[in-house]
């Protein structure tokens, strides 16, 4: 006991020093008031004399912010972001080009040309609406289903393809699974697919940006499934207590592989968690590209101006299978998927909007479909023709100087290939 007391004595002042500054500045009068008020550090509250548990649904039924209805009509003119025609066309071109790239690469995996793929079907609005609301210097941390963000930033088709093929043009030198894109020039941090890896990293980056006083924000994308990881919770809390300019962008697409949201959590989705951490939060219609744009733009403006985190929960639907390793017909109905594909799709909603405006018609659609398919096919064929990266890249870049045991492995491979090289497609590798 004495040892414990001694330990507490030693530790307490250090712990207090680490607490929020506000605690230290409370005046003496607050403690000498005759009124009985809770003085506990860490809570702002009143006393009550009735026993009542807080209902978890106190924060429930968080509304879904939208700007457009399913027919592409603006619901409230004051919410119309009034994006110029040229930029709206860029939204549409990006969303549809992404969709076409997905179709070709998905098929390519099915034919055994690449090892794996993940489509973005149905989530195009969350990517493009949020990407358009950021500036190019804002730092992006993605999960793996955000290719549209990178595409909106101008990442070319041949580099998407190079990564999926792991060919010599791939900046990752063919060392990663497909869809693990990264681009330093475009401030897009390379994907790490162990779930939630990027969330604490994004907060750390936002803290660094805050210390530099840079006019930048960090945006961190993740799925509602990844939000169940411990790292997500640690990241939320750090971002709030360290007051970091970060936007947590949750794509709530209804599933984490085969786990539906009804089995993922018991509260009101992800937005409901924000207030618990002291984070400003909003739920938006992720299939409404303008709603996503408005929410991200305002979150960005305030995150930078006020140095604080924001949480956006974009409600959407994963129309494709989780990945090429999944068959979603085992756990959801075709009718369910068809509803989102045919009746509430972000691409058709934006197309309706453009048609009302007189900015798009069936002929333009036909011409663009043909052209975008041609662009994707050309990049695809080029990627397939390219050689694989040099074999020596198997051993480089981990250590500044190659250690002995890696050197030994490299020599063993060279020896092996000298004898058995004819059994390998060595010509398909760069020399
Ligand atoms: C730590 C960890 N556990 C499990 C997995 C396997 N896994 C890959 S994706 C995924 C589901 C993630 O769902 P969600 O975050 O909702 O993203 P979505 O795929 O729906 O976009 C799981 C369980 C993983 N990659 N990492
Ligand atoms: Mg999900």
Describe the structure.
- This protein is an alpha/beta fold and 431 residues long.
- It has helices at residues 2-18, 21-24, 28-32, 85-110, 124-132, 147-152, 157-165, 198-212, 230-241, 261-264, 274-277, 289-306, 334-343, 346-357, 362-385, 404-420, and strands at residues 139-141, 188-189, 218-223, 246-252, 255-256, 259-260, 280-285, 310-315.
- The longest helix is centred in the N-terminal third of the chain and has 26 residues, at 85-110.
- Residues 1-23 have low confidence and may be disordered.
- The structure holds thiamine diphosphate and magnesium ion.
- Magnesium ion binds next to strand 5.
- Residues 145, 193-195, 223-226, 251, 253, 255-257, 318, 322 line the site of thiamine diphosphate.
- It is an enzyme of class 1 (oxidoreductase).
- It comes from Staurois parvus.
- Residues 93-391 form the Dehydrogenase E1 component domain.
Instruction: Give the strand content.
Output: 5-15%
Strand order of the largest sheet: 2-1-3-4-8-7
CATH topology type of the largest domain = Rossmann fold
What count of helical segments does DSSP give?
A: 16
Number of domains: 3
Please, what is the CATH homologous superfamily of the largest domain? Thiamin diphosphate (ThDP)-binding fold, Pyr/PP domains
As residue ranges, the low-confidence spans are 1-23
Main sheet record? 6 strands, parallel
- The radius of gyration is 26 Å
Q: Can you name the CATH architecture of the largest domain?
A: 3-Layer(aba) Sandwich
Q: What's the SSE pattern? A: HHHHHEHHEHEHEEEHHEHEHHHH
Bound compounds: thiamine diphosphate, magnesium ion
Number of strands: 8
- What is the CATH top level name of the largest domain? Alpha Beta
Mean pLDDT: 93
Structural class: alpha/beta
User: Helical content, roughly?
Assistant: 40-55%
Overall 3D shape:
globular
End-to-end C-alpha gap: 70 Å
């Amino acid at each position: 006991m004495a040892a414990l007391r001694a330990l507490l004595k030693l530790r307490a002042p250090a712990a207090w020093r680490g607490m929020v500054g506000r605690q230290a500045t409370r005046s003496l009068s607050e403690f000498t008031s005759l009124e009985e008020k809770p003085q506990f550090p860490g809570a702002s509250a009143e006393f009550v004399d009735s026993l009542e548990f807080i209902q978890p649904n106190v924060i429930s039924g968080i509304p879904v912010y939208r700007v457009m209805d399913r027919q592409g009509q603006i619901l409230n003119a004051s919410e119309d972001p009034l994006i110029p025609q040229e930029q709206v066309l860029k939204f549409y071109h990006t969303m549809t080009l992404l969709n076409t790239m997905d179709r070709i690469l998905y098929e390519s995996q099915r034919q055994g040309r690449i090892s794996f793929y993940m489509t973005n079907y149905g989530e195009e609005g969350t990517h493009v609406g949020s990407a358009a609301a950021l500036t190019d210097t804002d730092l992006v941390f993605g999960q793996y289903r955000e290719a549209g963000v990178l595409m909106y930033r101008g990442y070319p088709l041949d580099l998407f393809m190079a990564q999926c093929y792991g060919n010599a043009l791939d900046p990752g030198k063919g060392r990663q699974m497909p869809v693990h894109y990264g681009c330093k020039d475009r401030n897009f941090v390379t994907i790490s697919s162990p779930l939630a890896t990027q969330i604490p990293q994004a907060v750390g980056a936002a803290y660094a940006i805050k210390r530099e006083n840079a006019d930048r924000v960090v945006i961190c994308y993740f799925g509602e499934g990844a939000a169940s990881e411990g790292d997500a919770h640690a990241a939320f809390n750090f971002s709030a207590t360290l007051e970091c300019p970060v936007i947590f962008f949750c794509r709530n697409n209804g599933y984490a592989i085969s786990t539906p949201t009804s089995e993922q959590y018991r509260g009101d989705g992800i937005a409901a968690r924000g207030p618990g951490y002291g984070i400003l939060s909003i739920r938006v219609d992720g299939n409404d590209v303008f709603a996503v744009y408005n929410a991200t733009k305002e979150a960005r403006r305030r995150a930078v101006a006020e140095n604080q985190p924001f949480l956006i929960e974009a409600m959407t639907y994963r129309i494709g299978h989780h990945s090429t390793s999944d068959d979603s017909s085992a756990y959801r109905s075709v009718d369910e998927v068809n509803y989102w594909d045919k009746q509430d799709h972000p691409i058709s909603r934006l197309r309706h909007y453009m048609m009302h405006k007189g900015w798009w018609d069936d002929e333009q659609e036909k011409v663009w479909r043909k052209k975008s398919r041609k662009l994707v096919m050309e990049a695809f064929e080029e990627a397939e023709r390219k050689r694989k990266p040099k074999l020596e890249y198997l051993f480089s870049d981990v250590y500044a100087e190659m250690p002995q045991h890696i050197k030994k492995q490299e020599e063993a491979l060279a020896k092996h290939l000298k004898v058995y090289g004819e059994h390998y497609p060595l010509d398909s590798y760069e020399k």
